[in-house]
Amino acid sequence: MKICIIGGGPAGLYFACSIKSLNPEINVVVYEARNESVNSFGLGYTLQSLGTALLKRLDENYFKALFPNGETPLITQALFKTNNDSRTFDFSDGFSVTRFELMRYLHKKALSLNVKIKERKVTPADIKRLKKSSDLLVGADGVNSIVKRHFAKNFKPHIHTAKLQFSWFMNETDQIRKEACFYTFQAPEGVIIMTSYPLTENKQVVIIEMSNQCADSGKFKGKSPKDSIPYLNEILSSNGDNISLTPANLPWYAFKMNTTQNLAHENVTLIGDGAMSFHYSAGQGLTSAFSMGYALANCLNKNKDINTALQHYEQSLQPLFEKPSAQSLKSIKWFEEIDDHFKNTPEADWLEHFRLKDKFHNETPSFTPANTPMKQPVTENLSN
Fold this sequence. Notes:
Elements: E1 2-6, H1 10-22, E2 27-32, E3 44-47, H2 49-58, H3 62-66, E4 75-82, E5 85-98, H4 99-112, E6 116-119, H5 124-133, E7 136-139, H6 146-150, H7 152-155, E8 157-161, E9 164-172, E10 180-187, E11 190-198, E12 203-211, H8 212-215, H9 225-236, E13 245-247, E14 256-260, E15 264-265, E16 268-270, H10 285-302, H11 306-336, H12 338-343, H13 350-355
Parallel strand pairs: 1-2, 1-7, 2-6, 4-10, 7-16
Antiparallel strand pairs: 3-5, 4-5, 8-14, 9-12, 9-13, 10-11, 11-12, 15-16
Helix pairs in contact: 1-4, 1-10, 2-10, 10-11
């Protein structure tokens, strides 16, 4: 059997490693544009229970391979902050890894299993040829997948482009910060949302997000992420933090949430963000990439007929991701309206409004007063 995978990101390489581990005789070829499989953009992921369990199925020693110096801190707490409030809650245990580290590990693992990785950008003109020459063609090439676009009439994709701008940064200071951080700070332009995860005690990978209206006004108007850093540092350091962002040399992005009605067509299928993508607050990104790769590999291993294997793959995943997909869209719509939410909420309740956002939409909730003692609940899994 020959399997061609378009895209060498987490989904594509995890699937390649999984199927080769189950059946070393399968010929697996991954096509990835140069410098995209192992890149240095500084993007990060947070691995929690399911993600680590799926990595462990590939390699009992994955942790040592990912972190040879063992310096990444275990995340057990979530810190929520607004302009004048700060509270800590329990967090589902996990740890963070940069995209560079993860992709380097998966790339090396794939090569050790005799996966062929070709540094070549596949064009739309190549799709028909690869489909014909392969027993299975797998689109693992992200939310803008050319495989998905080529067979759009069959996959029936839907993309919601959020009315939000976000970008990635790093933060490295002398301040020790081991928590996952979820900050919402009101500025004259609107609400600035910061999500960060610790890579070491003093270094965090950071996502900054804001509404389109906020990004297009005041001191943010016309500014790149790099040019916005001094103002962002000023805003985000106003409640006891020492924020000193460094750029990842990336632009502002509009988040695209992708869903597809069908996951398979003839001998073609989708995995990863090409199939379904989630807002990072839904906590499904990396886990869903690994889960799709694992499910597809096992369906192929148990069913020698490609059509039957793809039917089982589709039937197993559609119900699994229905709830996270709906939750992700709900979160996106809430974030799109965050400026109005904060305007219509007393400042003392901003933190709880943000923390409990999943419980309502288009309404102002009733909160326990800020000075009332509360039992600290376990937070939702918010990471990627």
